[in-house]
Amino acid sequence: MSILATLNPAQKEAVETIQGPLLILAGPGSGKTRVITHRVAYLIRVCGINPYRIMAVTFTNKAANEMKERLEKLLGQTAGNLTLGTFHAICAGILRREGKAIGLDSRFVIYDEEDQLDLIKQSLLEVGLDPKHYTPRAIQSAIKAAKSRIWTPKDYAQHTHSYFDEIVHRVYERYQQLLSQSQAVDFDDLLMRTVQLFTDHSEVLNRYQSRYLHILVDEFQDTNITQYVLVKQLAEKHRNICVVGDPDQSIYSWRFADLRNILSFEKDYPDAKVVFLEQNYRSTKTILEVASNIISANLQRKPKNLWTENEIGVPLAIIETYSEDEEAQFVVGEIEKLVNNGAHLRDCAVMYRVNAQSRALEEAFMRYGVPYRLVGGTRFYQRREIKDIIAYLRVIHNPSDNISLTRIINIPSRGIGQRTLAELSAWARNQGMSLYDAIELVSEKKGPAFTTRITYALTNFFELMEKLRAKNGKLNLFDLIDKVIETTGYQQYLLAQENGEDRWENVLELRGVAEEYSELKPKEALATFLEKVTLVSDVDELDEKTDAATLITLHQAKGLEFPVVFIVGMEEGVLPHRKSFDDPEQMEEERRLCYVGVTRAQKQAYLLRAFRRSLLGGSSLNPPSRFLKDIPTNLVTIKGFWEEDKLTTVATPAPRPYSTLNLKTGDRVQHKMFGEGTVITCKQTKDDHEVTVAFKDIGIKRLLLSLAPLEKIEETSDI
DNA sequence: CGAAAGGCTCTTTTT
DNA sequence: GAGCCTTTCG
Questions:
Q1: What are phi and psi of A668, to 5 degrees?
Q2: Is A535 helix (H, G, I), strand (E, B) or coil?
Q3: Does the CB of A685 fall within 7 Å of any strand C atom?
Q4: Catalytic annotation, pick one of A176, A249, A284, A357
Q5: What is the DSSP letter of A248?
Q6: Nearest CA to A609 among A583, A576, A586, A633?
């Protein structure tokens, strides 16, 4: 069958335009992924282009895998040596091959953001600054911002405007030194250093430019300047660059994605052809219209006309509950109903703004025994025990890796404390050598003098690591991990901790992952494995086969679709998040986030909000989300405690001086929504009282006296 | 040195 | 509420 047969005219045009720059503006559900895959298949099959000469860049590993699978189906065979992956993965590959030119060992480690933060803290200390005064996080963010636009420390110095910039510059400079001492790069370096490599070594760039006849970039609205420059460099020779994206789905500006990349593509490539994909195949007419109404309130956008031939469908449901617990309860109850009516659990997804919101949901799913799958949360490869084992492997692979070495030098504890470590690293720094080499010298009595006991501990540690390093290349990865666990006594160490059993299970799972690499040569397996575990995320692993409801953040939901979508926390302060209140650009991004959520839905969408929400300890009364106000009322049904048009009329009751109420056990009280009840306990909290009340019909509720609309109707006569 | 406890801050999203 | 840091005590 022809590759073009199943495409609509716009899609066909996007696939067939293979000469010159091409911008594809693709609305949600418009078959964007189909177009990209078909385009690649078309290039290979119809135009006879060697896959070796095509590069396709995706945003997540999952998207890359999906594309690979679809491509294989389309071609009836693997696409062989096609370059397909995320920016980060592709750049890591280039740097492994070509890094020598810029002084990068091919065994370099990739530091994730936690490692990065550790290293920034260390840099702060080393340049003599107090981490209490300059928060490492703020500096991390400034450095990331710099790297997203290819600013080296030198460039940064040219752009300092404040004292803080000055500080950042000093830390940034030191930080890069430490990275290179450890033979390490961070996530942003993968991109930035590739650009630098290409800039400084035209012969390398030339090879890649000649090689890549066609370049495709997906999710172009989420690229940052560095990524854009990289793509431009690569495409300069053949100019066959195809970018696909949707400005309305740009939700990563906090990662320094720059919307201008897509908005000004036509300026950079005046001969660019632009194709609009506006037919939506995913959602009902109603869902699409609601989404359009939400997004069209943004000012910074190109209007577009989404349309669909799908049925009108049912109105969206706006659900108003009292608390996040009731919200969760409603979601679970409704999902059960849907399942009883023939839906599958896997058809349902619950989406939220921040991960912390998942807790109430999880509790409800657990309580009702409804299977669910949580995407994200504490990510597997971020767990402490996993990172410990990986740190051992990293040091085995690359002993210069000071951050990993620092991490494990005293885990399990072997008598090497902070003081020793500080002294040792200061010494190593002065000698200009790695921590590992310093330890070796100590064990040979040629290093700094320590007490006998500490020298002994360090020597033991060194010998342990040497023993493990000697196994590298001899044992396969799986056995190497076992060896690490065995010689370090990691299992006993872990089992002695809290949740030790669970955490040990995680380690076993990691072993399981390692098994997948048993076909590779041991050294290669280790290298591949280490790269994989840092560049992989949780959505990538999302298993769609098991029948369970999905709990997922709105960000992670991008690119996915579900028959039924619940968006919880449609409140001011949550969605839109309060951090965006004073910045119109960020507010527009919140709106896009909401838009992304709604457009995930195929058949049915529920928008939920709670009157009162406890999040991160405190509780607050949030007015309904402003986005709800942009939905025409004829497209929704509203259900809740407040029958009438409460979207605009819910007043936040002023906190009353609770001292006047003075409740005690046994008092009868009246609540605006729950009716009459009896006080069970009344407990003083920091600056409030927490009252537990038994309401008839409704049950037991815990309320805050300052917030709850409570009135005393009868005082108990008992004591 | 190390374990335990208490106090502190910071709470968005992820390759 | 959790994680991180500092302090304290053994």
A1: -95, 135
A2: helix
A3: no
A4: A249
A5: G
A6: A576
**A218 labelled catalytic:** yes
Q: Give pLDDT tens digits for A164-183.
A: 888 899 999 999 999 999 99
Annotated catalytic residue A78 = no
Q: Is the dihedral of CA A337, A338, A339, A340 positive or negative?
A: positive
Dist. CA A566–CA A634, nearest whole Å: 19
Q: Give the type of residue at A194.
A: T
d(CA A607, CA A315): 11
**Closest alpha carbon to C1' of C2, residue:** A616
HSE (CB half, 13 Å, CA atoms) of A19?
0
Query: Smallest CA–C1' separation from A130: which nucleotide?
Result: C5
Positions of chain A with pLDDT lower than 70, given as ranges: 1, 377-378, 537-545, 616-618, 641-662, 671-675, 681-690, 695-709, 716-719
Name residue A350's beta-bridge partners: A551, A566
Q: What is the spatial distance, in angstroms and rounded to an integer, between the CA atom of A359 and the C1' atom of C1? A: 11
Q: Which two tokens stand for residue A438?
A: 């310093």
Q: In this structure, are strands A601-610 and A316-321 parallel, antiparallel, or unpaired?
A: parallel
Structure tokens at A330: 């409603």
Is-catalytic flag, A600? Answer: yes
Angle between helices A225-235 and A202-211 (to 10 degrees): 70
Query: Do A679 and A693 meet the contact criterion of CB atoms below 8 Å apart?
Result: yes
A658-CA/C7-C1' distance, Å: 37
Distance A503 CA to B5 C1' (A): 23
3-state secondary structure A472-526: ECCECHHHHHHHHHHHHCHHHHHHCCCCHHHHHHHHHHHHHHHHCCCCCCHHHHH
Give me the pLDDT at residue A645, please.
Answer: 43
DSSP string, A326-370: HHHHHHHHHHHHHHHTT--GGGEEEEESSGGGHHHHHHHHHHTT-
Smallest Cα–Cα separation from A681: which of A695, A670, A667?
Answer: A667
> Strand C positions with any atom < 7 Å from protein CB?
1, 3, 5-6
Phi, psi for residue A83 in degrees, rounded to 5:
-90, 110
CB-to-strand B contacts below 7 angstroms: A 59-61, 86-89, 112-113, 135, 137, 187, 251, 254-255, 353-356, 376, 410, 413-420, 454, 535, 537-540, 553, 555-556, 577, 579-580, 586, 616-618
